[in-house]
Amino acid sequence: MSLPRTRVVTLNAALGPLDYRVPAGMRVEPGTVVIAPLGPRQLIGVAWEAERLPSEEVGDNRLRPLAGLVDVAPIAAPLRRLAEWTADYYLSPLASVLRMILPSAAALEGSRQLTEYRATNTVPARLTPQREQAIARLAGRQGTIRELADIAEVSDTVLRGLVTAGALEAVQVEADRPLPAPDPDFAQPILSTDQQRAADTLVAATGFDPILLDGVTGSGKTEVYFEAIAAALRAGRQTLVLLPEIALTEPFLKRFEARFGCPPNAWHSGLRSSQRRRAWRAIASGEAAVTVGARSALFLPYANLGLIVVDEAHEPSFKQEEGVQYHARDVAVMRARFEDIPVVLSTATPAIETRHMVEIGRYREVALPSRFAGATLPSITAIDLTQDPPPRGRWLAPTLVAEMQANLDAGEQSLLFLNRRGFAPLTLCRHCGHRFQCPNCTAWMVEHRLMHRLACHHCGHVEPPPLKCPECGEEDSLVACGPGVERIADEVAALFPEARTAIVTSDTIWSPAKAAEFVEQMEVGAIDIVIGTQLVTKGYHFPNLTLVGVVDADLGLQGGDLRAAERSFQQISQVAGRAGRGDKPGRVFVQTHDPSAPVIAALIAGDAPGFIAAETAARREAAMPPFGRLAAIIISSEDAAETEATARRIGRAAPMVEGMAVYGPAPAPLAMLRGRHRQRILVHAARALDVQDVIRDWLGGLDWKPKTRVSVDVDPYSFL
Ligand code: ADP
Ligand code: ZN
User: For the chain, is the Cβ count within 10 Å smaller at the N or the C terminus?
Assistant: First the structure.
């Protein structure tokens, strides 16, 4: 008789599945999280159905026993199936997907105590300004030294000094303190007829049921899917709400709390390890009734998931561009399928892919055609920059400036949208024409005047702006070309010196606390004019914001990306959707050099269906997604010749397959990124072709130098 054994997938992507002996008395079933010895190391792994992961049989005599079990619930079958599907579809190691299921080492440790600190009434004998600041900010607060240091904005050392001086005292707390429970009846809104009908549909959904909640900006989509969450709460099931960006969570958390009486369980990359541990364990135990998170929340082991909501489902940031290159919107639908639950995709500007699924009957659509409480959609007007140009060296047309002045006089808020961080996208020498390029990337250095730096937006490389040109040595010869938000802010300051302005980009809103501060200032009317990037295009609801100016509507159309027109349309619709959300109507002005371009014309005419129909027809014609498939193979290494040689070898090995075309290799548009040379092969295939299978076979038969990286991006969204 053979020994009891199990197959294990470890979290180490370099290892295939391994077999272990199950010691007597240990209970292991598929999904059990185990500790597996490998050489001198102990690896975390998950027991798996051996028949689903073919691997070489190891003789009983070579089998090592498992070292132990991790005291968490087993990874349930639907999540194991999702992990397999994700690994297969995105051509990634199963271990890499498991790392997203078990992303917190701290979470796997047994229950334990945590030391936190709180202020006492003792005033230390020596009172430095930093100590004073800490004492003032920490009154009534409690947390770990790290957490308190963040709140007080002082170093850990200052706080440790305060502990010694008796001004802070230690308290022992359970690491897994109970979470507050959202109350479905805390503050139920009165829904409009349309909203009620939509909410009823969501609430009645059972089993796998993908639903597009398609409502114009300000129609109350959030209030509507909150009713579905309330229903899940009443049924004792967990909900996952996916949001595109951390910055968005802050206003969202406030709204959630207003509706359900307490904040939800939050999951994002900004969590400290103790918070991750707590959030993960609450998810795995079923205690976390509602989790709100960025895309990585999708793979967590919910004990009892009953509903998934993908908010702002059109957002490109749901696509993960590193590691497992998955699209969280698409994987959310797959997860709902494996869990056999409804999934709601909420957006005012559905992606063509999503619309197509509705068209062919795979998804249902629930529409909210009008804004809540009689608020009207804003009027959109084009400003033709060839007819109505700004003065030389300026970027705001006279018409827009006059409208902004009128808005200021009326005490209403305005928003200028330009999707470009920094002061200027390009700096050059007036004398010799030298352009400042990143040493690691095929990209210009962007001037950030507020930080007094030149920065690369691809790799993060920064330099102080040089006093003279490094090429010709001429002093004071550098000129900024083109505008970024900081430059627009300068122009606004010159035009409206009395106006209070705020720049909103990832440089200024880099934490949930900063986002909260911005929202608060807008709400109390402490800001007249906002200048922002795509960060301000979504989610926010400011009733007194009545004017939106799109500084450069042509910007997003450059670059020849498959989705450029669609993305521009979505972005401008979303930013326009910030205007006139209260009882005052909104006006939107779109600066363009080509008012007759289809995107602009459709926006002005309010003809979303026409635009989508034309885009869809163009995609169908070219057999582009969703009517065909794309996959990008990116070959990169630090050695240019090696990269090229490997790419050529892979290109030559491309199989001839009916319904598949292979383009390249060619240098990727970002031919160098973070010091690595990049070549790209683009695969275009018919919808019906299992392109992953073809690529698996194709690449599986080849090898390359260890320092060369070959990654496959299935359904790519970035064509750089
Ligand atoms: P969307 O997500 O569709 O842009 P929101 O859900 O943000 O719209 O709703 C817009 C605004 O209207 C929000 O401030 C929201 O609280 C308010 N609102 C929507 N529906 C209702 C309702 N039935 N009762 C009260 N306020 C509502
Ligand atoms: Zn760079």
Answer: N
**580 close to ligand 1 (CB < 6 Angstrom):** no
Query: Which of residues 616, 638, 657 is at a domain's end?
Result: 616
Write out pLDDT tens, residues 382-417. 999 999 999 999 999 999 999 999 999 999 999 999
Residue 191 beta carbon below 6 angstroms from any ligand 1 atom: yes
- Please tell me the total count of domains within the chain: 5
Residues 508 and 636 in one domain: no
Buried b (16+ CB within 10 A) or exposed e, 174-212: ebbeebeebebeeeeeebbebbeebbbbbbebeeebbbb
Q: Which ligand is nearest to the CA of 460?
A: 2
Scan for tokens 């027991």, then name that residue.
47
Ligand 1 pocket residue status of 264, Cβ below 6 Å: no
> Would you call 81 exposed, middle or buried from its count of C-beta atoms within 10 A (0-12, 13-18, 19+)?
middle
Reported pTM: 0.89
Average model confidence (pLDDT) for the chain?
91
- For ligand 1, atom 24, name the residue with the nearest CA: 189
Same domain as 153, residue 277: no
Q: Which of 371, 372, 544 for mutating ligand 1's site (highest number of atoms within 8 Å of CB)?
A: 372
Compute the half-sphere exposure of residue 360: CA atoms within 13 Å on the CB side of its CA: 8
Domain assignment present for 442: no
The answer, yes or no, to whether any atom of ligand 1 lies below 6 A from the CB of 218, is yes
Residues 418-434 have pLDDT tens digits of 999 999 999 899 999 99
393 and 319 share a domain? no
CATH of the domain at 71: 3.40.1440
**Structural domain span for residue 513:** 375-420+483-616
The two structure tokens encoding residue 161: 């000094």
